Prior knowledge:
heterodimer, A: four-stranded antiparallel β-sheet, 10 helices, B: about 280 residues, mainly alpha, two-stranded antiparallel ribbon, 2 strands, globular
Amino acid sequence: MNCFEIKDLNLHYGTFQALHHINMDIAAGEITAFIGPSGCGKSTLLKTLNRMNDLVEGCKITGSVTLYGEDIYAASDVNLLRKRVGMVFQRSNPFPMSIYDNIAFGPRTHGVKSRLELDRIVEESLRAAAIWDEVKDRLKKSALSLSGGQQQRMCIARALAVSPEVLLMDEPTSALDPISTEKIEELLLTVREKYSIIIVTHNMQQAARVSDKTAFFLTGEVVEHDSTETIFAMPHDQRTEDYITGRFG
Amino acid sequence: MSKQNIIKLREKLMSAVFLVAALASILAVGLICFFLLVNGLPAMGEIGVFKFLLGREWSPTDIPPVFGILPMIVGSLYVTAGAIIIGVPIGVLTAVFLARVCPKRLYKLLKPGVDLMAGIPSVVYGFFAMAVIVPLTGSSMLTASILLGVMILPTIIGLAESALRAVPEQYYEGALALGAGHYRSVFFIVLPAAKSGILTAAVLGIGRAIGETMAVVMVAGNQARMPVSLLKGVRTMTANIVIEMGYAGELHRQALIATGVVLLLFILIINLSLSALKNRSKQ
Ligand SMILES: Nc1ncnc2c1ncn2[C@@H]1O[C@H](COP(=O)(O)OP(=O)(O)OP(=O)(O)O)[C@@H](O)[C@H]1O
Ligand SMILES: [Mg+2]
């Protein structure tokens, strides 16, 4: 089954066309990696999937994107879409408040009021993001007091707290040290059963290690989208091979 | 003289000019404090510090005269508190509207309007209040509070708006990405993130309100007695000074200056809490 089905998607920023005729089905329950050189439109495509591009002035989209069959651009409730499709940003962005309140913000937004229920969600999300043991004694402390790697895992926990169906991650480890990166990769592998995950990464090894499918982008087009093994072992397109073997850009 | 020497001389001359300019303002502050203390403290001594600060009666023309400024201290505090209660919520909401809600075209209209408010002389505010508010609520504490609440708006709006604009956009985007709507993101994430700036705005507002004189004198009723009700007249410290200075005799005059000392003390406390706030937000 597919979570997202993207049909003939074109995206313009003003007069600049950032995405050209994207056709892509993203399988549910799998990890899909987006790879490609800088500026090729990976983040742009990611942001069309939870409609964060709505914030960009002059951004025009044609074509269709469906989530389990529903057109996300025809649907009126953007907030519900963003609850179903969570996002983790490249630069971790904890809110300047306590760790607990960071995690609880999402559930509270969607109507969870009971203290007990919130406590449960906070613990469960932090556990899922493999950071519970590090923060369980300081939930009331400011989230800004965490290290960079911890902040990013907390942000993942925050995204998981609203029980999304899909998780979008834009270079979630690019600002982190190898150990934090490893922790996040491990956590991806443990949560993969419950969520469909799309991860943008510049790290080829990371894509190879964690993803089931990989899509290679070049100047706003999807060059190749296949199982990660195929992409890395025997890509069909010469440009994919050049990029993966490092002969490119 | 060689060319080099002329350049050097010019440099020295310029730095001397700057020094004098800087010293002049420090000198002014120093002189003001000196004048206030020299003229005010002896009166406080003569009247008795406690009788002066905590005395509930102010009858400078009685024989013997009674100088208790507690009514004016309390009056100033009440009126200022009223101004904050009215001005801060309205100002902060306006700032939220300007920074996060209003379309650009409307902004271009509203922003200069707010800036203009800051430049209106206080006597004009006073006239406005006499014509519009006094008919409704009389010359009273409430009227003075409303008027001061309006007068501190430009300060509050300006500072709160820039505090809101300084909040990183990624907080807002992070909240949206969790499925929060625009207003929920703004009020529960962006606004709390700007709280130290907004607190600073409120403190500066307090400073403006407590020091305001002209407009308050015009609408507050100015009865020198302990404040009795929102709808009855009240006299602030500034009003006390400006009303009586013209005809005050020896000790009376000094007592008014001593009122100025107390006012200065309040301003000092406000400034100290401001810099404490700044230090805290830097950390
Ligand atoms: N808000 C915007 N306004 C105008 N152009 C934009 C905007 N955001 C991105 N672009 C342009 O769209 C193209 C794709 O950008 P995008 O951020 O999607 O690239 P990317 O693949 O994520 O690159 P990177 O790997 O460096 O993050 C780039 O040419 C970029 O300059
Ligand atoms: Mg990007």
